[in-house]
């Protein structure tokens, strides 16, 4: 087994100043020929791959933080950190780094980082000034110390030197001793100076100083110094809050003293950063980056230590689901799990994945199912927050769990149905919880984040499950609030007469709007399943009842639902709308709105404009046939006239097609009659074909004479018959003086169909056809401005 002293995590600092975990492995220091120097190597403990290969450069500034961290920068904006499992391993590697650089391992930083702006002035700094000269730590010198600390903040080099001076002389503890003296003497001036000093020391951004300041015996005095802001008339009472108001609650006793100390420290440091320290300005925002890192690594350590303690977590979930657990105890347990999940957000994706798998194995989802159904509002709210962490991280894990439930339990207690009921029964007037749950439901039913594996399709299986077991629960409030009129049997089929049982209650209207938003999402993303459900439940008719609502936002939600359906341009939906006469409530809403120019008016007109522009013929015909008389008076937009124009154009097109079919039928009858008259001349036709082969090489002049003869109707025969010759096709004309007919045969490139088209007989229909062709050509040549407008 590998030496745990050398076990480390490799971190890099990203653009958002957050640490990214690059993996866990074992570190060693060895000479690398390629890099020509002693280098730090980290090999992954999983597969032995190289996670880090970094040459120990003589000029690189390495920092040791918190006894188990080594941090350094390899290039501009590329910071690295090694987090050791054990302090001994960190000390060992630190000594190696100091040995290569020729530095004293007792120091926590090996180099003085040089700011680019000061590189040019570096030579001006005397080499003898290794440290900043600190005044003696006395009451009378506090103002001088405060001025010194404040003055060095603008200079990176002087910040480093001051930090080293503060560490080397144990200065921090002496200052905190003066704080206690000043507070006993009520020396406000001294306390104000100490506020400036401690704030400035925090802005030095040095982990070694933080280790001292945030230790158990110093942190409350640091908080005390920060209470005496000179800008305040009366000091804040932060220590009173931390010691009396804020209580550390152990839902399950934590036996590990190191873990307890780490939890206390992290809470207090987070309080200092979030509450006590003022929001840093643009120029100060990087001053506390090390403080952020300090909190980050503490949280990672806390989560890791708790996660490894399976006995502790097992006990937490056992008590959480135990019916005998008191309500107050259960509330604390749920809040603990919520805080635990919040801490896990600091973990990197692979570690977070392991974290949530641990929770899943411990039964967090069945526990949430029980807790969400409880009466305690605080417990339910915390449970919803935990559920949101799980859904946002891995919706597939939640889906996998809920699809296994029907085999074990009834529909009413399915996790998703519990979530839906919580959404429906949200007591908050603003429906804050319902909005959050609706977002989680949408994430769960979103096909975009469903995985398709080789053996099964998650999308198909989960959506089938959802529509079978859950959809009726989601739509129940909608169907209950849009009930049919008691006398609906008296209305003929296809009538949209429904008693407008629209809720006047604002909260109910908001809830229905949320449900409609989710159903609209389903229309866009679920196609088959939602289409079947809408048809079977006649859902659109029920939704359109809400067009009568006094709450315009609800009417708009109903309209949006219909707009999404029409936007699919699906003929199944179109036939359903036509058969149910479902435009009636929309048009009634438009007419009831009158001449008011508002969002409802614009949204309804946009719906009809879409139908016109997309030329949805079945809907255009239905609207014009049934509602045009009611709509023709609306002239402030050209939408409805445009629909009428589209309708008329389609009607003309259909009548032209009908006439053409009739003409073609009549022409066929006449052609057949002529064909049968030609049957007597088949023998002559055979002679003509033989002669064609003989005369194929005749001159072009004979061809032209034959063509003129055919045009004039005189070909030396009593019954002149000629096939029309395409002008662009080469042709051969054969005359047979002994026969009663002359046949002219065209040889186009495409196969010839034997039909006897008589060229010498002029039919009126042929002239009409030619005129139509000429008109079409003229229309195509017309400029767009001269074409008739659809909306005119």
UniProtKB/TrEMBL annotation:
The lineage of its organism: Eukaryota, Metazoa, Chordata, Craniata, Vertebrata. Residues 711-792 are annotated as: Disordered. Belongs to the SMEK family. PANTHER family: ATP SYNTHASE GAMMA-RELATED (PTHR23318), SERINE_THREONINE-PROTEIN PHOSPHATASE 4 REGULATORY SUBUNIT 3B (PTHR23318:SF18). Keywords: Coiled coil. One of its GO terms (biological process) is DNA damage response. Residues 711-746 have a biased composition (Low complexity). This is Serine/threonine-protein phosphatase 4 regulatory subunit 3. Regulatory subunit of serine/threonine-protein phosphatase 4. InterPro entries: ARM-like (IPR011989), ARM-type_fold (IPR016024), EVH1_PP4R3 (IPR055236), P4R3-like_central_dom (IPR006887), PH-like_dom_sf (IPR011993), PP4R3-like (IPR051137). Signal peptide: none annotated. Residues 5-101 form the PP4R3 EVH1-like domain. Residues 763-779 have a biased composition (Acidic residues). Residues 644-671 form a coiled coil. Pfam families: EVH1_PP4R3, PP4R3. Residues 144-649 form the Serine/threonine-protein phosphatase 4 regulatory subunit 3-like central domain. One of its GO terms (cellular component) is protein phosphatase 4 complex. GO terms for molecular function: protein phosphatase activator activity.
């Amino acid at each position: 087994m590998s030496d745990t002293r050398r076990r480390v995590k490799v971190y890099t600092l990203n653009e958002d100043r957050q640490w990214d975990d690059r993996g866990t492995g074992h570190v060693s220091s060895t000479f690398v020929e390629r890099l020509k120097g002693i280098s730090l190597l980290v090999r992954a403990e999983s597969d032995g791959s190289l996670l880090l290969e970094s040459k120990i450069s003589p000029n690189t500034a390495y920092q040791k933080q918190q006894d188990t961290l080594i941090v350094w920068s390899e290039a501009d904006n590329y910071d690295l950190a090694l987090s050791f499992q054990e302090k001994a391993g960190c000390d060992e590697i630190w000594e190696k780094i100091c040995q290569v650089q020729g530095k004293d391992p007792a120091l926590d930083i090996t180099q003085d980082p040089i700011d680019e702006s000061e590189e040019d002035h570096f030579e001006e700094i005397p080499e003898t000034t290794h440290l900043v000269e600190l005044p003696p730590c006395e009451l009378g010198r506090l103002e001088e110390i405060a001025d010194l600390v404040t003055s060095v903040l603008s200079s990176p080099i002087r910040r480093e030197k001051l930090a080293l001076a503060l560490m080397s002389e144990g200065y921090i503890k002496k200052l905190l001793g003066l704080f206690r003296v000043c507070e006993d003497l009520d020396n406000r001036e001294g306390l104000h100076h100490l506020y400036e000093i401690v704030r400035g020391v925090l802005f030095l951004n040095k982990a070694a100083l933080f280790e001292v300041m945030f230790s158990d015996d110093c942190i409350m005095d640091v908080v005390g110094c920060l209470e005496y802001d000179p800008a305040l008339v009366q000091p804040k009472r932060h220590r009173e809050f931390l010691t009396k108001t804020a209580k550390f609650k152990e839902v399950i006793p934590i036996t590990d003293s190191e873990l307890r100390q780490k939890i206390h420290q992290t809470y207090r440091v987070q309080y200092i950063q979030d509450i006590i320290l003022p929001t840093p300005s643009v120029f100060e925002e990087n001053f506390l980056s090390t403080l952020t890192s300090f909190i980050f690594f503490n949280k990672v350590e806390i989560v890791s230590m708790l996660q490894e303690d399976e006995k502790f977590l097992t006990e937490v979930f056992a008590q959480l689901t135990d019916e005998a657990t008191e309500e107050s105890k259960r509330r604390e347990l749920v809040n603990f799990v919520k805080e635990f999940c919040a801490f896990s957000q600091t973990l990197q994706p692979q570690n977070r994945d392991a974290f949530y798998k641990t929770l899943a194995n411990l039964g967090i989802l069945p526990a949430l199912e029980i807790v969400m159904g409880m009466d305690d509002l605080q417990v339910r709210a915390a449970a919803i927050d935990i559920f949101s962490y799980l859904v946002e991280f891995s919706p597939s894990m939640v889906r996998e769990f809920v699809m296994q439930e029907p085999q074990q339990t009834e529909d009413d207690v399915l996790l998703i149905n519990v979530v839906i009921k919580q959404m429906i029964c949200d007591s908050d007037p603003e429906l804050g919880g319902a909005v959050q749950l609706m977002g989680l439901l949408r994430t769960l039913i979103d096909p975009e984040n469903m995985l398709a594996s080789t053996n099964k399709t998650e999308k198909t299986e989960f959506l089938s499950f959802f529509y079978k077991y859950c959809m009726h629960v989601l739509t129940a409030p909608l169907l209950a609030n849009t009930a049919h009129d008691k006398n609906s049997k008296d209305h003929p089929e296809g009538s949209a007469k429904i008693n407008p049982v629209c809720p006047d209650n604002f909260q109910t209207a908001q809830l229905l709007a949320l449900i409609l938003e989710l159903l609209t999402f389903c229309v866009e993303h679920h196609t088959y399943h939602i289409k079947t459900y809408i048809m079977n439940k006649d859902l659109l008719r029920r939704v359109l009842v809400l067009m009568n609502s006094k709450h315009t936002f609800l009417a708009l939600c109903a309209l949006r639902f219909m707009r999404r359906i029409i936007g699919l341009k699906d003929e199944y939906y179109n036939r359903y709308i036509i058969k149910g006469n479902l435009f009636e409530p929309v048009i009634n809403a438009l007419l009831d709105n009158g001449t008011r120019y508002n969002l409802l008016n614009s949204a309804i007109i946009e719906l009809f404009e879409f139908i016109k522009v997309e030329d949805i013929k079945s809907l255009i015909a239905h609207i014009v046939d049934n509602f045009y008389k009611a709509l023709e008076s609306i002239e402030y937009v050209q939408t409805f006239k445009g629909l009428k124009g589209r309708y008329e154009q389609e009607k003309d097109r259909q009548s032209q097609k009908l006439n053409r079919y009739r003409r073609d039928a009549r022409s066929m009858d006449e052609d057949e009659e002529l064909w049968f008259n030609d049957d007597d001349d088949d023998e002559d036709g055979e002679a003509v074909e033989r002669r064609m082969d003989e005369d194929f090489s005749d001159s072009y002049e004979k061809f032209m004479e034959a063509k003129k003869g055919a045009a004039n109707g005189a070909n030396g025969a009593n019954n002149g018959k000629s096939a029309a010759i395409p002008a662009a096709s080469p042709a051969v004309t054969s005359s047979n003086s002994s026969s009663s007919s002359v046949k002219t045969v065209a040889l186009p490139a495409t196969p010839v169909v034997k039909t006897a088209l008589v060229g010498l007989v002029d039919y009126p229909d042929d002239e009409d056809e030619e005129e139509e062709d000429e008109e079409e050509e003229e229309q195509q040549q017309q400029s767009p401005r001269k074409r008739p407008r659809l909306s005119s």
